[in-house]
Amino acid sequence: MATQQKEGRVVILGIYVTDLTFRADRMPLIGETIAGNAFKMGPGGKGSNQAVAAARAGADVVFCTRLGNDAFGQIARATWDAEGITARASVVDGASTGAAHIFVDDTTGKNAIIVASGAAATMNAGDVDAIEADIASARVFVTQLEQPVAAAKHGLEVARKHGVTTVFNPAPALPLDDSIFPLCDYITPNETETTALTGIEVSNVDDARRAADVLLKKGVRNVIVTLGEAGALLHSAEQSVFVPAFQCGRVVETAGAGDGFTGGFAAALARGADAVEATRFGCALAGISVTRPGTAPSMPTLAEVNEVLAQAGHPLSTH
Which parts of the chain span the membrane according to its record (predicted)? Predict the structure, then answer.
């Protein structure tokens, strides 16, 4: 029996980690200890960050993952409860909840990250089957690559089976079998991930277009190459549109910006925006997030994103 797809609903499959963020003037060398300027612990993980971004952007979000039975898992549930996110999070006994070490360069705001997925590393196709009804009821399904590829691919397959729009964020960069690409209505790699997927070095918009053409030939319907402080390129067989970044203030921390883009993009799509509008919405959301510390905590509200869009003369025309 067909399930009615609900406007505004986004289902995300991914991982939660607790971010342990250290700020310093530079990275230490191997064997060296340096003094840090600050430390903060908070919620993170690509999938969970995208869920928070989408929820704050007005989406009805269901998030599927695995947690350990520990303090970090309690932080995860408290985070989702506070954001109104419906959690489908099974507990794996004997495994820890994921964690991430994040180094932030206090001068530039740029970052380097080590992620240990913990319990979420055991996710498999069964996790997807358990939420098939959720996926079938969604307008948009999102996944990434911090959990096993097999789980991500099965999620895309189930979403496609139910006619749900699929958004694949191929992060972190991993070698992928070409069979995953035809399952993607949208793929949202950054420059590094685009290079890894196509072999084309991406340093500007023209490079991004050439690389996007390679992904289209692999079967992706729409490619969105996120270009950091430059903006994003939406590229398909029908159109190629560069959306400039929104300058919303001094850059404090870029960690989570890509997650903000993908979560915001998915939320806008689910609420009826077209691809260009949704790309613009994602760029505006990411532009605000980089002016704030943290990953999930840096995500703005729908009102804040709408204000930036309105000031730029691009109000979102969703219903």
Answer: none
